[in-house]
Amino acid sequence: MKKTLLAFLTSLALVQVFSQEQGPQPTLIPAPVSLQVNAGTFILPKAITVEAPDQPALTQTLKELKDHLSIPTGYVPPVSKTANPAATIRLILNKTPDTELGGEGYRLAITSKNIVIRANQPAGLFYGIQSLWQLFSKEIESSKPVKGISWQAPCVTITDYPRFGWRGLMFDVSRHFFTKIEVKSFIDEMVKYKYNLLHFHLTDDEGWRIQIKSLPRLTEVGAWSAHRVGTFGTFSVPGPDEPLDNGGFYTQDDIRELVAYAKDRFVDILPEVDVPGHSMAAIVSYPELSCTEGAEKYRVISGEKFMNWPGPQAIVDNTLCPANEKIYPFLDKVFTEVAALFPFGYIHVGGDECAKNFWEKSEAVKQLMQKEGLKNMEEVQSYFEKRVEKIVESKGKKVIGWDEILEGGLAPNAAVMSWRGIAGGIAAAKLGHQVVMSPTTFVYLDYMQGDAILEPPVYATLRLKTAYSFEPVPDGVDPKLIRGGQANLWTEQVYNTRHLQYMIWPRSLAVAECLWSPKDKKDWNSFARRTEAQFARMDIEQVKYARSMFDPIFTVKRDDNANDSISVGLSTEVDGLDIYYSFDNSNPDNFYPKYTVPLSIPKDASMLKVITYRDGKPIGRQTDMPVEELKKRARLKKPE
Ligand code: ACM
Questions:
Q1: Catalytic residue among 68, 199, 201, 278
Q2: Which of 126, 207, 305, 409 has the fewest beta carbons closer than 10 A?
Q3: Could you confirm whether 604 is annotated as catalytic?
Q4: What's the predicted TM-score (pTM) here?
Q5: Which ligand 1 atom lies nearest to the CA of residue 278?
Q6: What's the gap in Å between 325 CA and the centre of ligand 1?
Q7: Which pLDDT does position 2 carry in this prediction?
Q8: In a domain? residue 8
Q9: Number of H helices, E strands in the chain
């Protein structure tokens, strides 16, 4: 008896040792609702078989599953469409709905024998598969065969479903045009982290990107500008003979292809036609849409300054004129074709940053105000939005717009996308309207993610840790009215896909977790560790990302009563890093002074160089910070 007990205890101890030896813990992003790590490891056999339901909605998922498995491993799985309990990977649609899971949830069980994913709907199986890849050895992400790997995953039991149904990423393809192939890879990347909505910002001052067959000039003229690189917003105005050959657009066939591509990956596309502001490309194509004389001389914006901020005050009139009856049949044509192309229930009608200074001067607008009893320019915009809502609804779609559409009175059924903080979302929800939270403070991916001294310049900063603190449901608001949230990538300063990836990742990992995972599962330290594991996967996928979370953060404080004397605090977003520095212009390493308390600047020093280390290895970028820059920041800062 004693012997049996001893043998049992020894075997328990072995299980413990074995499970400790299984390697790293799962590093899933977004964190699942529940994850139990069990003893043991699944090792992919050479002879894999897959069981999958016979469902047209899963055709692409199965193709991707086969490719994802067979390209790196070389093991090619046959797929059976009938129940096969002996299959290596079993994808099962529940005959009786599992009420905990909803339409996008799944249960994933990995044992040493096999992998079983169960869901109510195909989307759930798709998300279960996305989690499965993150559990396998990272080399599973390779697009080439990899030799000498034991393809393994820890034994786990996962139950998972999203917190929000609207998990969006906005892609601005107007400021810079991105090809159909680039949009497809954007979709490929977003679904890995369970985003399900691509908000497609298709029109703006810098280009109209969607073919409207009844209005051909929108893409013959409105899609093209002069080529410029550098700091957007400071470029020279194109000369009269300069070629306008920079840009592009999607044909209606392209759009149908993208919609189908997205649907195969369980992504909806929300099209945005941004009116009545941000409309220069439309006005250049059809100058009669303006209330301002001389609009026929305008050009699509190539990145020159044409607005004054704050305001906005337009230097050239980039608005559709609500008092001009021609704009409504124009918009009717646009929304007729847009509605026919995109199956998603909403059309985004923009509404943001509409400069009113040309409306203020317009006789036609004054007459409209008198006729309709409109008291101010906000009410003029509201009049426009209400007419737009009627047009969009006549096409069988619902309207969503940026939070400015609240000003002057919200159209009766419009949903609001809250971007100037969360106040617009709160106000709209209090009026009973649907809301998507997308505040600059947490989800603007065009902002810099590290110190301005290191990052490509943009006018604001959003660090990863701040993005991770995004909470879409404000206190006191009916959570049922908050559809979800989304992160926005504006592309004024994004010229190519490598930089696009750099701006998206890892902040979109943070937002993905805020939108999918239960609020009480969020944990910054755990997220930072899991993000690093995703970096290793992105390295294999050759996806670029920002490592700014490892870089030093400088905080400056003016010393009391000393004229120009400051103290400099150094920190990092990620815990557990060592910070080394120099003031003598040489490049510091881990033999240099280690930062412990705020630094005073030695007399006459002109440069503070800083680098972060972990476990004796450099991990952040060396940051060379001019002392003059620190003093400037201290002067700008209000005394505490
Ligand atoms: C916006 O960022 N103008 C919506």
A1: 278
A2: 305
A3: no
A4: 0.95
A5: 3
A6: 26
A7: 44
A8: no
A9: 18, 28
